[in-house]
Amino acid sequence: MNNDKVGIAVLDFGGQYSHLICRRVRGLGVRARLFPYDTSLEHLKASDVKGVILSGGPASVYDTDAPRPDPGILQGELPVLGICYGYQLLVQDRGGQVTRSKRREYGKASLNILSHAGLFAGITEKRVTCWMSHGDSARRIPTDFRVLASSANSRYAALASMDGKCYGVQFHPEVAQTEHGAQMLSNFVFGACRAKRNWRMDDFVRRTVDELSTTLSGRVLCAVSGGVDSSTTALLLHRAVGERLQCVFIDHGLLREGETAEVRRAFRDAMGIDLVMIDAADRFLIALKGIHDPEQKRKIVGRVFADVFEEYARKSGSFKFLAQGTVYPDIVESGRTSKLSAKIKTHHNVGGLPKDLSLDVVEPLKELYKDEVRKVAEILGLPASIRKRHPFPGPGLAVRIIGEVTPDKLRVCRMANKVVEEVVVKHGLYDKVWQALAYLGDDQLTGVLGDERKSGHQVTVKVVESVDAMTADWARLPYDALEEMSRRITNEIEGVVSVSYAVSSKPPSTIEPQ
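RESULT FIELD:
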């Protein structure tokens, strides 16, 4: 198996789902790589690329400064699939017209399939749900293209060139909400491109361990939180550098109930990796005092993390590298994937680290999604108690507390999160949902406790379903589970008088409130 062959190239025009396209192609067993949008056709051919996917992006193709690929790519010398902005580039370049839509489409839409060939081969339904996210649409299509599908607001929702080498879709087949999206991508990858399967997670593990063992020449300090990302990073590094690895867990005082003891048990008992525990809770809380802005909070947590690690490194020997469990959604939301990408929110381990950090940062999982990380963790033998654990943000409860982090709000937030997790476990829902959490802000609502009128906090519960955290839908929990959460939170947590349930999906919201 030749792992140097790319298979499918994804040209990145700054879309939030650009790397997710790569993930979906890799899920088909074909190696995919994200390239800058202006990569030359000759470079792609030299990489043995069998086909090209043009990603979505925030620009409009009719703008004078809109990003455009090598003109030869759009002419179909290699098979091309344009998605959203990429679709509009194809339409415009081949003689069609793209304009501002009278009615924009965001979120789920019904797709009417007009031809069950090409991209839609093997899909028997005439109507499927797809995921739209666009403000521009094709007004006139090229004369050498035919229509494959339409929606209520997109007359030309999917197109194909007459020669079967170029396809364009206004929707996003790469997101989980698009029904049969994997089949559509498979039809392009194996049908139009005739690509061969050349990607397995076992190969990723082997290559990564080999690369880490040869490139990391000094001692490595690994930041661990007990979550699957950092724990998997630690196991990869342990295999690669052995005793040159030192794992450090920093208690920043923003953790879930009982988390410190649980992490200690997992690393020492289940994984056999020595772990240094540092209690820095007071330091973090002092740094966060008076801070309301969520971006500031994330950056402060990142800065203090780096300070604590550097101080430990100076006291404990000559470390050269700082390893982190950064995964791709962290980088996407921090706007670090492309010069065209928009920043959603800075993750403490991406944008929160100081520029003058004296340690070289190592992020072996930065191109993977959470479901891929869990597969790597399974290959490495990570215990299921960590591998299947719900995600928890690096800045901890600081980003589940809207406004200033105070001792009282921290107490309420920690206890509320504990209740939510206990209830989803009790009702057999923990392994069926992606994440279950609780958050609160500064709002004070009026309640009645006993015979007394009293004001107090409102806690918001959020439970979502997802595959990779790039998109998510709110979970339709049974009413008895929601009722138990509400009753326990108001009864067991002093100062809470109301509980609400969040029913917004991602997009437009994010999974964590901040």
